[in-house]
Amino acid sequence: MSANSTVMEDETRLEQRLDRVVARAASPRGAAVVIATVSTSITVAAGILMTVADRKGFPSIGSGLWWAVQTVTTVGYGDHVPTTVAGRLVAAVVMLVGIGFLTVITAAITSTFVSRSRREQTLSGPSSPTEEQLTQIARRLERIEAALTDRPSG
Questions:
Q1: How far, in Å, CA of 49 to CA of 43, rounded?
Q2: Rg (Cα) of the chain, in Å, rounded?
Q3: Residues with Cβ < 8 Å from 77, sequence gap 6 or more?
Q4: Contacts of 89 (CB under 8 A, 6+ apart)
Q5: For the chain, is the Cβ count within 10 Å smaller at the N or the C terminus?
Q6: For residue 40, how many other CB atoms are within 10 A of its CB?
Q7: What residues have CB less than 8 Å from 70, skipping those under 6 apart?
Q8: Residue 24 pLDDT level (bands cut at 50, 70, 90)
Q9: Rounded CA gap, 154 and 151, in Å?
Q10: Position 152 in a domain
Q11: Into how many domains does the chain fold?
Q12: Is residue 114 part of a domain?
């Protein structure tokens, strides 16, 4: 198996997981639950990891969690900062995941809602007077084209 096919399989697995997460967020309430769960999971994991990675700067899980909340929410008071290389690596990963992953999840859920709204509008037909007028004009043009096509030439 080549490295390229391994990357494709990993992307497919990631896409499948993302699809399952987005499917759970079928309603605004479900979306809020998914986003809150992912945010909380990232925050708790980051707080614990930081306590392990930079024991000197974050001697308790509480201080690690406080740092994680500041970082994930992008508040960043600066009262607790990692000082070790391991701590800074954890911080970099948390920042990138917080910015990237949460943004992707939120965008995917929003896209789902927009698509659903458009489908519902399409199924319900024209909703504004302008749309109704355009639909009538399109029908008239189709009748005119049909009449011109059926006319004998000559």
A1: 10
A2: 27
A3: 70
A4: 53
A5: C
A6: 12
A7: 76, 77, 80
A8: low
A9: 9
A10: no
A11: 1
A12: yes
User: Distances from the Cα of 49 to the Cαs of 28, 46, 73, 93, 128, in angstroms?
Assistant: 31, 5, 17, 11, 54
First to last CA, the chain: 68
Closest C-alpha to 139, from 125, 153, 152: 125
Report residue 6 as tokens: 């391994």
Q: Which two tokens stand for residue 107?
A: 């965008």
Could you tell me the CATH number of the domain that includes residue 112? 1.10.287.70
Pull the structure tokens for residue 132: 């109704």
Is residue 150 one of the residues assigned to a domain?
no
**Nearest-5° angle of CA 76, CA 77, CA 81?**
75
Give the whole-angstrom CA distance, residue 85 versus residue 83.
7
Contact of 71 with 91, CB cutoff 8 Å: yes
Q: Which two tokens stand for residue 38?
A: 């992912």
H-run or E-run covering 32: helix 28-53
CA pair distance 69, 46, nearest whole angstrom: 9
The answer to whether 30 and 36 have CB atoms below 8 angstroms apart is no
Q: Which domain holds residue 9?
A: 3-125
pLDDT-based confidence at 53, cuts 50/70/90? very high
Region 56-79: mean pLDDT is 87
Measure the CA–CA gap between 89 and 123, rounded to whole angstroms: 50
